[in-house]
Amino acid sequence: MPAIEGGNRILRGDNTDWLGIRESIRSRAPSIGAPAAALVIGARGTDRAAIFALQSLGSQVLVEAFPDAPVKLIETLDVWPAEGPAPTVIVSTVPASATTTDSTNPGAVLLPLALFDATVNGVVVDMAYKPAETPLLTLAKSAAPNWARVLGVEVLLEQGCAQFETWMGRRCPKHVVLKSVLETCFAAAWAAKGKVDEDGL
């Protein structure tokens, strides 16, 4: 976006992926604070945003595969490093088709039941938004019903609000945007989730 720095007109880049992820976590699980451990599933560009968002919350980050970041890599999704704590925040940045709960599907990442610690309150974010109900979110619903689940469209809405405020310099009317988007594009997706949260995304 255009900006003035030292009397010179410049173009300044920004990233709202991490803000969308962080604000989705904060709004759906405000009591979670700085999680002791978090898990990122994937190894592409959006993972960097997820890791940055989690670090901004004060979390130690576990990743399935992310060779360039100062984080701990894990080989399987149910074994945590050095018997450390299980994650209370999980963010998936891979397409929904890349994950499965079917052990006979060799072409996708297997999501085991042990992925979730059902004894604690946590939050799971799936960046994929087609379909709205991904294998990860479906597993969370059955394996850890006390975990908050964040649809990919919710993250997109948080990103859009951050972009609006950056460009326009004023607060985004979040509820108006939410209502409009859901009515025109994502009514079916929200119905699959169950309800609209009147206090935020």
UniProtKB/TrEMBL annotation:
Recorded superkingdom: Eukaryota
Pfam families associated with the record: SDH_C
GO biological process: chorismate biosynthetic process; shikimate metabolic process
GO molecular function terms listed in the Swiss-Prot or TrEMBL record: shikimate 3-dehydrogenase (NADP+) activity
Residue stretches spanning the membrane: none
Start and end residues of each SDH C-terminal domain: 152-182
PANTHER family listed in its UniProt record: BIFUNCTIONAL 3-DEHYDROQUINATE DEHYDRATASE_SHIKIMATE DEHYDROGENASE, CHLOROPLASTIC, SHIKIMATE DEHYDROGENASE
The name this protein goes by in its record: SDH C-terminal domain-containing protein
Species the sequence originates in: Suillus plorans
Source lineage: Eukaryota, Fungi, Dikarya, Basidiomycota, Agaricomycotina
